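Example for tutorial group B:
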């Protein structure tokens, strides 16, 4: 989540107030299980040919990286071709504290800007040329603040040379907009989602295919259908105008795109009921004429992304984080298996199922608490303990009475339901990824106002965040219990002599505020950061960056550093892993300006590759 988004929604959050209660102590879990930090191991060596599966429309598997594998891993199958590419990580790590106003990559790598805020999207778009624009011109071109994204294969097209790139626009790139004309509609047109067909030319340069029938914008002015148990309660017409704060995202096994709304506050257009926002929205990128649907069965909260796990019977679970301060981690299991041979049969699968929230116990075990009306105290006169982690231990909790009269109430007020049911309040759960061995990882970006620690959130005033991971019982997406551990605590090197709450345990290159995270089809873990951009951060860590993290040792290697003021976010790639797509959000220097003299540094999707065509990471 962009810190700019946090500022936009701050007034309504402050009006609600914050309340809190005691949690668990980190030293208790270490004492009980001193070896937990090294229990989980990831695996390498899966065939890259499985990235898009056997068919184009089943283009994604575990975490969207590969088709569901025999054995249920959802991350591909088989071993790496012994004469094939070398996917071992050998790039030359970047230096510390880089603050240049450019994208910095290792030696032998290159960067290309592919798709920037205001660029042409749909056929007939005027495109931004340096003069601020207003609606309706802005409705059909790239939105602002590029965020989560996914790459989809196209039937009949070599996926290493072309496909569909679908990406979120979290907020507005105001410098490109003329807000004096149709200001509300102009802002709303700058958020949402872009679907663009892209292709690699003979010279290796990638570009958006102009006038492709797939190119489409979904904006804050678009009408969306609403499905699931809370549809009528959200709006009796089962329709909502607009999507908002489209932060991260994820694919489904049947080839659709899940864009996640990271706000339950409607601060851009107060005329719309706020119950219409804070949902997962399903988009079919292969069918531009279809209407996107808000899936209420998956709960309403500050969604970050989705990542899924499958099994041999084609049952699937979707993992989600609530980027709240604090927020919970969720899992949604559709009632039925998906059908890999009948795509149409899956298009309403997300309207029925069971939603859970995670409880992280102090002994390294965990369980999924069912969020179903009538269970786990989700009834009339329920007691909400509030955001208890944000008040000092010597301050008594300030619980409130809430009424859950139906499942629709549970889904509309999911954040409250999770607290009532006893889920663990985490330090801003952001991206989640499912590895090829079914280890699940979640970035907890930070929580500078935490006052009470728990085993899974061991630091008060947690300014730099951490990463937690877990294994489901039996590696099953249907499991209701799991085992967890901390992968790492982000922050300063202990040699700096800083306070304990800002000191990390990273081996290698230190960083703050892990956000974007993804395990690629070769089992390699990539982490992106979204820390503050003031000198108090950049003097220690440099600009926001992207890292490779070894899951066994916790060692990190700095792979990419962004320009001034930006967040690094969005991770997608071609199946050969020779091309990575990465998003640069809200740069504020002169990088990627269009206007003469600058002043309009634009968010953008960039292409990163090796000059010799080898896989990224080599």
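The residue assignment follows.
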């Amino acid at each position: 989540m962009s810190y700019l988004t946090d500022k936009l929604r701050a007034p309504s959050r402050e009006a609600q107030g914050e309340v809190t209660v005691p949690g668990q102590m980190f030293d208790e879990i270490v004492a009980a299980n001193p070896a937990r930090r090294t229990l989980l191991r990831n695996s390498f060596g899966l065939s890259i040919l499985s990235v898009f599966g056997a068919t184009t429309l089943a283009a994604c598997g575990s975490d969207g990286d590969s088709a569901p594998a025999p054995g249920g891993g959802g991350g591909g199958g088989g071993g790496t071709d012994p004469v094939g590419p070398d996917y071992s990580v050998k790039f030359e790590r970047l230096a510390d504290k880089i603050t240049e106003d450019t994208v910095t990559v290792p030696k032998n790598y290159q960067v290309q800007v592919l798709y920037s805020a205001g660029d042409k999207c749909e056929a007939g778009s005027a495109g931004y040329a340096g003069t601020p624009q207003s609606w309706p011109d802005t409705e059909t071109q790239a939105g602002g603040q590029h965020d989560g994204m996914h790459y989809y294969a196209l039937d009949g097209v070599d996926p290493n040379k072309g496909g569909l790139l679908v990406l979120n626009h979290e907020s507005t790139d105001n410098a490109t907009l003329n807000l004096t004309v149709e200001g509300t509609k102009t802002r709303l047109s700058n958020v949402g989602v872009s679907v663009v067909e892209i292709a690699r030319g003979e010279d290796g340069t990638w570009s958006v295919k102009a006038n492709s029938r797939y190119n489409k914008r979904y904006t804050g002015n678009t009408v969306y259908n609403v499905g699931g148990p809370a549809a009528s309660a959200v709006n009796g017409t089962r329709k909502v105008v607009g999507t908002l704060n489209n932060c991260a995202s994820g694919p489904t096994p049947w080839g659709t795109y899940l864009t996640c709304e990271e706000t339950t506050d409607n601060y851009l257009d107060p005329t719309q009921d706020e119950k219409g926002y804070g949902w997962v929205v399903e988009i079919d990128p292969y069918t531009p004429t279809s209407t996107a649907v808000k899936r209420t069965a998956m709960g309403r909260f500050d969604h970050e992304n989705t990542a899924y796990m499958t099994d041999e019977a084609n049952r699937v679970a979707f993992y989600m984080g609530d980027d709240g301060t604090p927020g919970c981690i969720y899992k949604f299991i559709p009632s039925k298996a998906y059908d890999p041979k009948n795509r149409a049969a899956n298009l309403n699968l997300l309207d029925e199922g069971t939603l859970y929230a995670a409880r992280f116990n102090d002994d390294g075990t965990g369980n999924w608490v069912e969020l179903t009306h009538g269970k786990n105290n989700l009834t009339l006169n329920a007691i909400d303990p509030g955001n208890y982690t944000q008040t000092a231990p010597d301050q008594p909790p300030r619980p409130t009475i809430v009424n859950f009269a139906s499942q629709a109430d549970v889904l509309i007020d999911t954040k409250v339901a999770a607290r009532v049911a006893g889920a663990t309040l985490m330090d801003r759960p952001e991206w989640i990824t499912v590895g090829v061995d079914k280890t699940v990882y979640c970035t907890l970006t930070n929580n500078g106002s935490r006052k009470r620690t728990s085993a899974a959130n061991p630091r008060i005033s947690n300014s730099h965040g951490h990463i937690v991971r877990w294994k489901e019982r039996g590696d099953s997406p249907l499991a209701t219990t799991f085992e967890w551990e901390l992968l790492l605590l982000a922050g300063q090197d202990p040699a700096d002599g800083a306070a304990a709450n800002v000191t990390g345990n990273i081996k290698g290159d230190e960083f703050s505020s892990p956000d974007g995270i993804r395990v690629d089809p070769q089992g390699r873990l990539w982490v992106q950061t979204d820390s503050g951009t003031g000198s108090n951060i950049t003097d220690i860590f440099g600009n926001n960056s992207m890292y490779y993290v070894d899951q066994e040792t916790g060692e990190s290697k700095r792979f990419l550093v962004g320009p001034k003021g930006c967040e690094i976010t969005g991770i997608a790639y071609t199946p050969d892993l020779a091309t990575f797509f990465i998003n640069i959000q809200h740069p504020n220097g002169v990088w990627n300006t269009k206007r003469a003299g600058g002043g309009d540094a634009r968010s953008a999707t960039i292409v990163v590759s090796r000059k010799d065509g080898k896989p990224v990471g080599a």
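The chain has one domain: 3-8+95-610. Compare this with the pattern of hydrophobic and polar residues in the output above.
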